[in-house]
Design goal:
Chain A: Component of the oligosaccharyltransferase (OST) complex. The structure holds two protein chains of two kinds. Helices cover 22% and strands 31% of the residues of chain A. Chain A has nine helices and 29 strands. By secondary structure, chain B is mainly alpha-helical. Chain B has helices at residues 2-21, 25-51, 56-80, 92-126. Chain B is flat. Classes of the chains: A alpha+beta, B mainly alpha.
Amino acid sequence: MMNLSRSVALISLFLLPLLSFSFSVDNPTDQRVLVLLDDLSLKSSHSIFFGSLKSRGFDLDFKLADDSKLALQRYGQFLYDGLIIFAPSTERFGGSLDSKSIADFVDSGRDLILSADTSASDLIRGIALECGVDFDEDSSAMVIDHSSFPLSDGDHTLIAADDLVKSDVILGKSKIEAPVLFRGVAHSLNPTNNLVLKVLSASPSAYSANPSSKLSSPPQLTGSAISLVSVMQARNNARVVISGSLQLFSDRLFRSAVQKAGSPNKYEKSGNEQFATELSKWVFHERGHLKAGSLVHHRVGETDEPAIYRIKDDLEFSVEILEWSGRSWEPYVADDVQVQFYMMSPYVLKTLSTDKKGMFHTSFKVPDVYGVFQFKVEYEKLGYTTLSLSKQIPVRPYRHNEYERFIPTAYPYYGACFTTMAGFFVFSFVYLYHK
Amino acid sequence: MVKSTSKDAQDLFRSLHSAYSATPTNLKIIDMYVVFAVFTALIQVAYMALVGSFPFNSFLSGVLSCVGTAVLAVCLRIQVNKENKEFKSHPPLGSYLEYSYRIWHQNEHLQILYSATWSSTWSSSTSSD
């Protein structure tokens, strides 16, 4: 018994240095990434993408999808911070991996890149469905577009897409000029789901159908409802990228020149490499990750935080928000962070002003209602982690000696009382001493 | 018909005027004081009609002190009037002292009334929104 506990302690001691090389609150970029492939030749056919990840410091662990020793967790600790599944035709994962363990992986706040291709197995579809993404039910369907294809392609299944989401956080500051080449399956998103987002959409002339057979009925998925690449940011800020094409990440499409049919612009290089690199920076938390310090509030003119406010007090509120730059915490600059003074509904809603060094502040008057309020900062900007901060503070009414001593509206009445007194005295004199 | 009623009104007013000038001076002083007190009360009522009844306690204290002193002055006038057979035996000074006492007593009532209505205005002002 003693020996067993001692060996467990020894093993966990070995794992301790392993555990420190993972993402943490102070360093939110992922470190160790497990890459699942269904064919080891993907290592060389997608070498540019994997090379760029390695050069940014990621620790990639390549494994076949049906490797029997696959595990995401050991002894309750996760072994990886990120997961890339480039195994579109795998029916079953090896080892202890299945769609439930991958769902637990994302639930713990870890990130995922999932890619289907011209065929997507039920397993991959199921994982995508957990993340809110619906692949086309027809397993032989591909995205076809007869007007947005590159001139080099023959059968219009290779798409040149340029309908990208307008977000500097997700796709980087520099605009992706060249179209992104895509060949694969279509997926759609539930419009009521507010956690998923289309990053690369198909053009209005695209549709999803089997390219080698004649269409017997109009296709179900058409136009801009087709998403080619989508992202999901979960409520615990885990990020998932789901792509309908594995070839989008391949060296061949990274290097190929593009000229879109009907457009005079010829690009030496497609936008794929920039697109994939920027997206991987976003999904592995190198960009767009916010951290907030504590909320600080006090009365105007004081520095200590009071335990209770009085109605109609003037108070100042500030919060510090930092943004992770990939290496260090930088001050976050934005003009749309708001604070609510909330009790069942916001009584005060103010936009915070920033000093560009990460401090956001404002001042306002406590409303004329007493009760237990909360300072609430609920910040959900596209592509950024959600900030949900709150701090409770009670508000009391006036004490009996804090009211004004003389009410200005009542001055005539005070005057009337005094003139009555004076009148009484004058009357008494006149009445008693008249002759 | 109209002419006669206006003439009647004029005759009435003239006879009242001449009858009133015959009253003794001390009663006229009391009458002036009553008019002054009622006038002050009416000003306060007009002010309340303009700005509303907040703070009601102050309004009450102002009006009631004026009205009360007017009423007590009328009592004094009744007691002091020589033509009034009931009060022949009362000395005028005694009536005045009684009047003063009543004024003081009324003010004491008003103090209580004022503070009672003041505490009710606390709760009404804080629960107003």
